[in-house]
Amino acid sequence: MRENCTSGLEGGGAEPNRPSLPLSKTAGQTRPSGLRSIGTGPMPVPIRPEVLRNVELDYLGILFRWMHILAAVTAVGGTIFVRVALLPSIAVLPDDQRKALHEQVRSRWIKFVMGAILFLLASGFYNIIMKEKPPGVTALYHALFGIKFLLALVIFFVASALVGRSPALAGIRANARFWLTLNMVLAITVVCISGVLRALPPGSKPARPAAVGPEASPSEFALRR
Ligand code: HEM
Q1: Domain boundaries defined on the chain
Q2: ω into residue 135 within 30 of 0, thus cis?
């Protein structure tokens, strides 16, 4: 029964509209034809090897995605909290207490700000390098990514100035209300742009290097120039 089923699929005909099921590598049995099957019932569902390859997880990609999302949540959430809750709250304290609390918060928060910047840059570059692989991304994606990247650099600069102690950037700290508001608006904008980037369709970069010369057909050659 199983053999009939397998050879039926090799012809490409059996149950073409069957919905795909969750797959597990261990559940499959190797067939002489190279096909595997899922399910343990009397009639397991045979599946093609290329389908199995497609369900392999990109562990590094997931790790960098976690890094990016966690760092973004920390940086954006922290900025909003400081602007809307912490800043107005410490303003009611006497001067000496306000300065002491500010220093306590600053010395702890700086580690998270620096960590978030490092994580966002590392995972962001990984993301964009992966996105550039075929089929690549569209011109609109590049334009929006450029805007996002520039805004992110402004956010990183302002956040570093606010938690740092450089005398040259004391002016930014003296006007923390304005700069925190700006950073909050920019950070929310960056998250919104990122959501659009995620939703954009892929590009149309060819999957293999362009064949030029006698091996390419005339139309192929013309298209790839
Ligand atoms: C304030 C800084 C940043 C914030 C708040 C931020 C936020 C986000 C968010 C929320 C996503 C969507 C994550 C997902 O759904 O998996 C994302 C994706 C992404 N980010 Fe960022 N990011 C920041 C900085 C950066 C930087 C500096 C880079 C580049 C070096 C970068 C490159 C990317 C790329 C390429 C994606 C994938 C977009 C896609 O799905 O096509 N990000 N970012």
Answers
A1: 2-54, 59-199
A2: yes
CA–CA separation, 132 vs 200, rounded Å? 14
Amino acid at 184: M
CA of 161 to the centre of ligand 1 (A): 22
pLDDT tens, residue by residue, 7-37: 333 333 334 444 444 444 444 444 445 455 5
Ligand 1 binding pocket includes 113 (Cβ within 6 Å): no
Distance CA 23, CA 139 (A): 36
In the numeric block, the tokens 């940086």 are attached to 75
Mean per-residue pLDDT for 162-178?
97
- 130: tokens are 């992966």
pTM of the model: 0.75
Contact criterion met (CB below 8 Å) for 119 and 70: yes
